[in-house]
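user: can you give me the structure for this one chain? tokens are fine.
assistant: on it. calling the predictor now.
[tool input]
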Amino acid sequence: MGIETAHHDDGVTVITVDYPPVNALPVQGWFDLADAILSSGKRPETHAVVLRAEGRGFNAGVDIKEMQRTPGFTALIGANRGCYAAFGAVYDCAVPVIAAVNGFCLGGGIGLVGNADVIVCSDDATFAVPEVDRGALGAATHLARMVPPLMMRRLYFTAATISAQEVAQYGAIHAVVPRAELDDAALAVAREIAAKDTRVIRAAKEAINGIDLQNVHTSYRFEQGFTFELNLAGISDEHRDAFVETGDALKKG
């Protein structure tokens, strides 16, 4: 359980997230994931990284229960910094990162997948950013890399769920395959990239990041600032407490 890294002889490194029951990562988990991704990219033998998950879904975001049972703001600040580190690690990894998405991908999962270089999904994969229902903000930066701007706004404001098949219509997803074929499909893309001259691919990754129209680091950090404001106002605690107690969003008005 936790973050597992497997280096293959073909130049592909597979990083697996396994935090039962729903892959909601604790604070340390986000930092561990960031370290695994960046350190893998620094290995000369690694030419491509596959990021995958065990269990029912790819990622359920931060561990809200950990946040609510931890006194003070330690867990809140840790989660914010951990997410920033993990999302940034996917983007800054020296080699391409292929996200293999199964089941649900929520909140922080969008931050990981939206910063990936290639996305492969199982046919049961779904995406959502339920931040507004948790009294928080974040990952709009990354959702906007997957769907058109106005769709991103609707999905964000409503906390609605969208299927992998719908996202694929906009070109963000390389392939949608049966669940049993997900790992093979992700590995196929990774191996195709890994077979090329890694010196060129590494230069290409850095070059493409350098011409991005939006700086994902500063954009996400800007979003996080509003999350801090909501927490200082006590609004976020109301929503997180309601979620921990009932599992439902807090309704107002």
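assistant: here you go. The beta strands are 2-7, 12-18, 48-53, 97-101, 104-106, 118-122, 126-128, 161-163, 175-177. The chain is about 50% helix and 15% strand.
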